[in-house]
Design a protein that fits this description.
single chain, about 350 residues, Beta-clip-like, 3 domains, three-stranded antiparallel β-sheet, 13 helices, globular
């Protein structure tokens, strides 16, 4: 059952401002709800900032001993400390360490199970909402505890992914002959993609980094080496994980979940503070009464052909896009952008899918 609109706005940082900016409307039985601007919004303007109804870190985070707040997923260690721990190199330094603001003096642990929080406020919020039920207390080593059973099942399923991640981290982050190719900005971009700053890594997010690497001016030999390295990363990810390398965590955002997709989005959801607070920002000027749409595809996927975009959306989100870009390209031939195997059923038509 959908949450009442007042409950959705109550999760926003400034509910009054949000009510002045947007409203949730029911569109029709096919598209369902959508978010619409109540006033003119300029490009770059913050539309709303929202807390999740519920969020959680992925288990592989804990297995790799990432230090993040159990409630809000804020990092409990700096990027440099994280890199030193993962690489086993205590002397490793990263550019611009001043950008990582961590307050160890505010961190608190649950006295029963010792999970960590970034503040007393997060610890209390977790206790009020769910931690009383999930706290393991002294049962960390009890194989019959329901939470431990669930985690063990997840470990078995994801052992291959975790092993591959270790190799990818080591190769991509700490190989000296790779690091020297990148500017400080480029290195920080790569580092953020592997989960320490909440972004995760996968073929989608990796493609964004690849796009940025194309702008680097490198000698021919180094360009060939970099291209070969990137190709191998793609092959390893697809072979070992089926394109399933998770980011730091996941959350359900009631207001943002009403945003429909467009291949030419006028809004973008992001996590600039590297914890669970979601920011929706205008990518272009939005007129009062206009629907605010985000893209379920990354920037590189949006540059693919209409046929390729539709294939991704059908496989992952079970609908066919009818945005202005897709409509304008309706007469283009149905060809993939990267010659991947189609794999679609012969008789499948767009009319069989939900139109959003």
């Amino acid at each position: 059952m959908a949450a009442p609109q007042d409950d959705m706005f109550s999760l926003c940082v400034d509910p009054l401002k949000v009510r002045q900016n947007v409203e949730v409307r029911f569109i029709d039985n096919v598209k369902g709800k959508g978010i619409f601007a109540k006033r003119d919004i300029r490009k770059g303007e913050s539309i709303f900032t929202e807390r999740p109804l519920i969020s959680a870190q992925f288990l592989w985070n804990a297995l790799y001993k990432y230090k993040a707040c159990e409630y809000c997923m804020r990092s409990l260690e700096t990027a440099e400390e994280n890199a030193q721990r993962l690489s086993g190199k205590p002397g490793l330094s990263l550019p611009r360490p001043e950008l990582c603001r961590v307050r160890p003096d505010l961190q608190q642990a649950c006295p029963q199970c010792q999970v960590m929080y970034c503040s007393a406020e997060c610890r209390q919020a977790a206790l009020d909402q769910y931690h009383r039920a999930l706290c393991l207390g002294g049962s960390h080593e009890d194989p019959d505890h329901p939470v431990n059973k669930l985690q063990e099942a997840w470990r078995c399923i994801n052992y291959g992914q975790l092993a591959l991640l270790r190799g990818l981290f080591t190769t991509a982050l700490y190989d000296e002959h790779l690091v020297r190719w990148f500017t400080p900005e480029g290195f920080c971009s790569l580092f953020s993609l592997v989960g320490t700053n909440g972004q995760g890594i996968g073929t989608s997010s990796l493609s964004q980094w690849v796009h940025a690497c194309d702008a680097l001016e490198l000698p021919d030999q180094q360009r060939e080496q970099l291209d070969a390295f990137i190709d191998q990363l793609y092959k390893d990810i697809e072979k070992e994980t089926g394109d399933f390398l998770n980011c730091e965590g996941s959350g359900l955002f009631l207001l943002q979940s009403s945003c429909n997709h467009s291949c030419v989005p006028n809004g973008e959801a992001s996590f600039p503070d590297n914890y669970f607070l979601l920011h929706l920002t205008a990518l272009s000027d939005v007129r009062a009464g206009e629907e605010i749409c985000i893209s379920y595809l990354d920037c590189c996927q949006r540059d693919r052909s209409r046929h390729s975009r539709h294939k991704i959306l059908r496989e992952n989100y079970l609908f066919v896009c009818s945005c202005s870009k897709c409509t304008s390209q309706a007469d283009e031939p149905d060809v993939t952008s990267d010659e991947e195997e189609d794999g679609e059923a012969e008789g499948e038509t767009e009319d069989e899918m939900t139109d959003v």
